[in-house]
Amino acid sequence: MSKVADGFFQPLMHQLLHDAPGELSLLEQCDTRFYGHLSRSLEKLEKQTFLVELSIRERPNRLRHERVKKSPRSFADHINHPFKESSNMKRQIFVNIAVTDLAKSRAFFSSLGFSFNEQFCDDTAACLVISEEIHAMLLTHDKMKGFLPKGHEIAGPKTHEALVCLSCESREEVDRLVDKAITEGGRTFSEPQDYGFMYYRSFQDLDGHIWEMAHMDMSKIPSEEPTKAGKA
């Protein structure tokens, strides 16, 4: 029994069980039902007292854990992360691009080592799997037009709205993918760019969409030079 319950109930129990000799004890004067009710009440109160004491002891740790797990560090956290994800969700991206010949486009990207999610493939669309969270939906022109408001047209090979850049594990992977793309019918879009810490090349696929392959080595990013004496 807890210290709180002991301090309150021990004197009462002593009186109930140890009255003066020769006199009827208070316990004997109690109705059996009353004593049973009193006993159950004492047991219930003892449990409640223990739970209250336990809750008081554990509350600081529990609150600290909940603050770390559930609460943002500050209001700025909501501003800086307006699309903050739940802990069980990874946000995915699906880039929709129009292709002239779906079968040829599938063969082109398959030759680069990419796969397709057949659950989202048919005669009008193919879901290109770039990574677990990144996909490109290759859509026939008729399919793509179904998603465009009236009056909007699909951009031609000489009109570009976006450049898709994919990270690579090494400079060698950059060269391998771009070289393979050109071999399979793609076209060089720009010459290789080498900044020491970053290396990238780009190509156009069969429909003129621009794909850039880039490798970045964060350990080679140059640090800012200290301001030279005599200069502001």
Describe the overall structure:
The strands form two sheets. The chain has a four-stranded mixed sheet with strand order 1-4-3-2. Strands 5-8-7-6 form a four-stranded mixed sheet, covered by helices on one side. With 232 residues, the chain is of the alpha/beta class. Helices cover 40% and strands 21% of the residues. It contains seven helices and eight strands, in the order H-H-H-H-E-H-E-E-E-H-E-H-E-E-E. It starts with a helix and ends in a 16-residue tail after the last strand.
Tell me the layout of helices and strands.
Layout: H1 3-17, H2 26-29, H3 32-70, H4 75-80, E1 93-99, H5 102-111, E2 115-117, E3 125-129, E4 134-140, H6 141-145, E5 163-167, H7 171-183, E6 187-194, E7 198-204, E8 210-216
- As a percent range, the share of strand residues is 15-25%
**Portion in helices:** 25-40%
Specify the number of helices: 7
Going by helix content, strand content and strand pairing, the class is alpha/beta
Low-pLDDT stretches are 63-83, 227-232
Strand order of the largest sheet: 1-4-3-2
Report the strand count.
Answer: 8
Mean pLDDT level: 76
Largest sheet: 4 strands, mixed
Which shape, going by the Cα principal axes? Answer: extended
Radius of gyration: 37 Å
- State the end-to-end distance: 75 Å
